[in-house]
Write a structure and sequence with these properties.
The chain has 178 residues and is mostly helical. It folds into 2 domains: 22-119; 125-178, no CATH class. The chain contains 6 helices and no strands. The chain is elongated and about 95 Å long.
């Protein structure tokens, strides 16, 4: 494979990421560290137990505060604020995880010579384009099921080749018939 500047740049970034990491500065780096810590902690059974205990304590204190509006406002405000902030923390973590998974899948597709490289960066397609490709793969699954051969392979590239062959035969048949 020819080493283009883009490939060299990617190799540099990958190799650099395995070296001692530079500490990033600024709000983005802080939020990244904060988000990682919060999602790691809040995803544990202990966080769930703590949240349950907070609600239990709140419920037990109801009679003490005579179930007042302020008593109700405390739990409503607290849960609303926590939920609002957690949406952004969780979304940040999800975006990071999704990006990492997509890059790993792209690497697997690019490394496999039998895989269709058209699927690299497929996440950038529109919903309609993704639905069209999904229908194609559902059709391929049905074809494979009908063939009753688990070793048969089908891909987007194979479909393109088959389409080209069909077009050639169609042109030849048209010429023959005229």
């Amino acid at each position: 494979m020819k080493m283009t500047p883009v490939i060299i740049g990617v190799i540099y970034v990958i190799n650099r990421s395995h070296m001692k990491k530079k500490t990033k500065r600024g709000f983005s780096a802080f939020f990244n560290r904060f988000s990682n810590a919060v999602t790691r902690v809040t995803g544990t059974p202990w966080a769930f137990i703590l949240a349950g205990l907070v609600i239990l304590v709140w419920g037990i204190t109801g009679p003490i505060f005579k179930f007042s509006d302020t008593w109700q406002l405390v739990i409503n405000t607290g849960t609303t604020v926590v939920t609002f902030l957690m949406v952004f923390v969780i979304q940040h973590s999800q975006n990071k995880d999704t990006k990492a998974i997509q890059l790993k899948l792209n690497e697997l597709i690019a490394a496999n010579h039998d895989a269709s490289n058209r699927l690299v960066s497929i996440e950038d397609l529109t919903d309609d384009e993704l639905e069209l490709i999904k229908k194609f793969y559902m059709h391929l699954a049905q074809v494979a099921k009908n063939e009753n051969n688990i070793f048969s392979t089908h891909s987007l590239d194979e479909a393109k080749q088959n389409s080209a062959k069909k077009s050639k035969h169609k042109v030849k048949d048209t010429i023959k018939n005229t």
